[in-house]
Write a structure and sequence with these properties.
alpha/beta; globular
């Protein structure tokens, strides 16, 4: 019998990547990446040039199909395998990324009448403009004592299905009325592959507020907005597929795109973070997987159900069947490091890096690594893209405290690296404080290549740190699920044992450094609660970050001639100057 192969496709923030994997042992034979032509749409709407408001992040769904047309056949070709020996394909996606479609799955932005309507486009996971709607969802749920709310740490994120859906309804009811389905991108791409719309159990549970087989009630939704009462029944609910299940067979059209045999298994969709746990052989209770890239998602299995403050959710079967899958996360990690390098490093550092033939990231890391813990005199908050866990507040922003005229770029860079580690430790302590032990950190994603950062995380979190032994963790995880959907392995744990890759305890904490980091972490927690809890919350301090965000929105509206723009001012207006473009963080940092 000839060898069997599967294809895993990982849809990241800026690109999609495909990997060809041998079913018997998980050997990765080849991979290929295709960058999205439109990348992240956060400034101007394609075709119209309309300026987008702050906190918007959209994408174009045709970019996702282009990955199937290019990356998949390229990976199969480079692997040198006979396409006839490929028995399945599976995909994973960033979440929560939402596609408004017609009843047959056509994205609304592809209809001529909606090309110029921003709400007709894909809302990417880091679209945070629905925060006011999330605030209302949370306030009403607390007021009514909704039983599902504690399953999400007491707060629903602006990134998720309901907040983004409510924003769509209230800001463009015509687009909302034309929408037949509100579809996770993870499920939309599976729909394109096999012609079957199946909601995956992972996103339905974590991002779609589906617990114990039910969504929030019609009565609750009507209290938010009478026109939102039918959101679940009319726009959202659909057949749920379990992880590793076959969603359908590859259609003739999709076979033409990919060069794969028509009819092979297409697995139910999944999330990039959750699908990585089996790839890292980290599905036992106590093993927390941190998928570190542009953001970080923390996932782990548990044997018991617990309610962890600020977690993104706990879902039965959310990672593997028979266990409770927990999720938490940080909205900005690699994005923060990339932002700093793009905006805050002087030309002399860029020149020095170029002369040595290294990246600016590598130069700053080497300089930062020469310091003793605390030598820079700084502490930072890692909220440059809001806080996902444990505060669940996209309105928060970054803080760096302690800068002087002697502060150098490597000082601030190291403080930002440390801040993200402190954010992860805050998450770990929230889990352990709720009776969910974390015994091991397993890291996947582009940032594991930074050995200084990995050791820093081990020291800060005082835990051994293992690393996935694959450069394509999510794609390998998808391939594992493709093998199960094709019947090549009986279930996900068995496929994980055969195909997963991990190196255990590559980094172990240094007690002396860990003791010094404890001192810095205590300062981080003081700032965390002072700026993050708010004046009206226990232990809170100052809402200045929220007030600054409101001032930013008001100023942007005035500049655009929107509400509040009619006020006059004696301040002279400078001539319009176009700012130089800043490139997106390379997707090697991201998941």
């Amino acid at each position: 019998m000839s060898e069997q192969y599967v294809v895993g496709v990982d849809y990241g923030t800026l690109s999609g990547r495909a990997v060809v994997v041998r079913v018997s042992d998980g050997a990765e034979l080849a991979s290929a990446t295709h960058p999205y032509a439109h990348a992240v749409v956060d400034r101007q709407l394609p075709g119209t040039g309309e300026q987008l408001p702050p906190d918007w992040a959209l994408q174009v769904p045709s970019d996702y199909v282009d990955v199937l047309r290019t990356a998949v056949p390229a990976a199969v070709r480079d692997a040198g395998v006979d396409p006839a020996d490929v028995v399945g394909i599976a995909t994973d996606f960033t979440a929560c990324t939402m596609v408004p479609t017609t009843a047959d799955g056509t994205p609304l932005c592809e209809l001529p009448e909606f090309v110029g309507r921003k709400h007709a486009y894909v809302k990417l996971w880091k679209h945070h403009a629905a925060q006011p709607h999330a605030d209302r969802i949370n306030a009403l749920a607390h007021e009514r004592g909704e039983a599902w709310l504690p399953r999400y740490g007491g707060l629903i994120s602006s990134e998720w299905e309901f907040a983004k859906g409510l924003q769509l309804l209230e800001e463009d009811p015509e687009v909302y009325a034309a929408m037949g389905h509100w579809v996770e991108a993870a499920d939309w791409i599976v729909w394109q592959l096999c012609g079957e719309y199946v909601r995956n159990a992972c996103t339905a549970g974590y991002k779609g507020i589906r617990q114990d087989g039910d969504y929030p009630s019609r009565d609750y939704l009507a209290a938010l907005n009478p026109d939102f009462a039918g959101f679940v029944t009319d726009k959202l609910d659909h057949r749920i597929g379990e992880l590793g299940e076959r969603a359908g067979g590859l259609t003739r059209e999709a076979a033409g795109w990919t060069g794969l045999p028509e009819g092979i298994a297409v697995a139910v969709g999944n999330v990039d973070a959750h699908v990585t746990a089996p790839a890292a052989q980290a599905i036992e209770p106590g093993q927390m997987v941190a998928i570190m890239g542009t953001s970080t998602c923390h996932v782990m299995n548990g044997d018991t159900l617990a309610e962890v403050p600020g977690m993104c959710g706990v879902v039965e079967g959310g990672i593997t069947a028979g266990r409770y899958g927990y999720e938490a996360g940080q909205s900005g990690v690699g994005d923060i490091f990339g932002w700093f390098v793009d905006t805050s490093v002087p030309p002399s550092y860029v020149q020095a890096a170029g002369e040595r033939g290294v990246s600016v990231h590598q130069l700053l890391t080497e300089l930062a690594a020469q310091q003793e813990v605390g030598e820079h005199g700084l502490v930072a908050l890692d909220w440059h893209n809001g806080n996902r866990s444990v505060l669940v507040d996209a309105e928060l922003s970054g803080v760096v405290l302690g800068q002087t005229l002697a502060t150098r770029p490597e000082d601030t860079y190291r403080a930002l690296l440390e801040a993200t580690a402190f954010g992860t430790r805050t998450i770990i302590e929230a889990f352990e404080g709720s009776g969910v032990p974390v015994t091991e950190l397993v890291v996947a994603g582009g940032l594991l290549k930074n050995t200084f950062l990995m050791q820093l995380y081990s020291d800060v979190c005082r835990r051994p740190l293992s690393v996935i032994d694959s450069d394509q963790g999510p794609a390998l995880g998808s391939a594992i699920h493709a093998a199960v959907a094709a019947g090549a392995h009986p279930d996900v744990p068995a496929a994980s044992a055969a195909m997963g890759k991990v190196r255990r305890a590559v980094y172990t904490p240094d007690d002396e450094r860990a003791d010094r980091y404890d001192v810095l972490f205590a300062e981080y927690r003081r700032l965390h609660d002072f700026f993050g809890r708010g004046e009206d919350q226990p232990g809170g301090g100052n809402d200045v970050l929220h007030r600054l965000r409101a001032l930013r929105r008001d100023a942007a509206a005035r500049r655009a001639g929107g509400p509040g723009a009619g006020a006059t001012t004696a301040t002279p207006v400078a001539p319009e100057v176009e700012a130089p473009a800043i490139e997106e963080t390379p997707d090697v940092l991201g998941v």
